[in-house]
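[[Encoded backbone]]
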Amino acid sequence: MNNYERITPKTPENIANRHAYLLGGGIGSLSAAAFMIHDAHMPGKNIHILEKLDLLGGSMDGAGTAEKGYTARGGREIESHFECFNDLYSFIPSLNDPNISILDEFRQLNIEEPIESHCRLVEKQGTPSDFSSFGLSQANALELAKLHMLTEEALGGTTIEQFFSPSFFETNFWYFWVTMFAFEPWHSVVEVKRYVERFMHLIGGMNCLKGILHTEYNQFDSLILPLLTWLKDNGVQFQMGCDVTDIDFDFSNGKKTATRILFTKSGKAGQIDVAPDDLVLFTNGSMTQNTQRGDFNTPAPLNRSENKGCFSVWEKLAKKSPEFGHPEVFCSDVDKTKWMSFTVTLKDDDIVFPYLTKLTGDKPGMGGLVTIKDSSWLMSWVVPKHPHFIDQPDNVKVLWAYALKLDVPGDYIKKTYAECTGREMFEELLYHMGLEKQIPAILDHTVNVIPSMMPYITSQFMPRVAGDRPEVIPAGSQNFGFLGQYAEVPHDCVFTVEYSVRTAMMAVYGLLDLNKPVEEIYPGWYDIRVLSKAAKTCLGVGNTSLGTIPLALLVSNLKDLELNKLL
């Protein structure tokens, strides 16, 4: 979108009498409500958000107390070209100063306190590992170039391990990539392609996390809470404890019109009749669905229930129309879509945080992710900006960590990651940090360690083909759309806040015919400057024996791959 198109849309016909029903209380629904008020001029009182849980915000969570311990399942990476995200938060006022926006506040924070890692990798119990280059061979770099050149249709359901050679998985690039984005070798290589292209402008600084932005607090307190406050101030209606079970449609005359929402609340069945010019927007999957938590002495169980919440509703809808996608592709194998994070709460700590500051050379909250290369669980940790929670006392500190290999024994704790209590996870982490001898003293100051087992956290990365994810506005839809990580947005990347916010903008602008274009995805992969920098970084120009290889060699080698036969 250029400045000429940054208009205030005309008020849609009869908008004051139309209602919107947003099914699910995550960032997709919350941002859709905001766009309806801000851009479509719908009265807030006409917007109804139905949520099963007693807390809004979906996967962007953060809760707890200093006495019982804090928990956050994880934070999504944010960068400056999240155009829909930036648009949304440009009109949401700061809770600290209503005269500025969340975007103003967020940008200033990242100018003053930019993330830059000085210790991205460690090994051998707290020894920094060289992270200055990607460690890609020429053959590895050409595999990435080939991936960029191939179409999604040509790649189809190919997995990462089917596409790349074994040596690729031993490179620093893979360690950076897999721990930043939580890819597994059995996931879709198409999603890797999208990430490579969507974030190509960040590849030059990926080894030290340059360009990654952070919030003042956890993402609930910094992003969800001010958005909720604004929505409530504008009269949006929230129906908590409302478990949506199905949606009825009229499919006559080649059209798709939502007519009824079925739900249960407090054990009683209910329904909402939907008028033809009302809107129904459904978040058809949640990566944190069926999360189970443990604590210091209790493992977090894996929920294998057949009741998959919004996935189960999507399964019902998919039987009603082929344009509603294929949920089974994403939610049928939890052993390939699960992982677990844990949040550590320490009180009066004088060992861990001073030690980590010295080990990494990073100021607290400004170093980002640190990955343990030789961890059998492939563990990583983050020291967030302090305080990480609005009500967090100064003498209470929070550390977040996670691991990608759940079903292999640890190096210090001889149990699988999935079997461990919060205490055992933390002991394994401390061992790899180089704090083995101090473990008893550190545990004396540990308030709690809360693990979160998430069965579907990487389900959006499962191998897929066109049509598996439904369009945001399915063909023929009159008043219905899909929101979130399991609706299709060409060229954009799932597992990001931007993706959910973009689906909300697409659904609202499209169904209400606002005649305002959705913010364009930043097309960095078409910029020769971006391509050149990424190619030089991947080839190790200036850092390795490949330093004399110019960009022209990359282009000429592409011809040798005979990509024209594969396109």
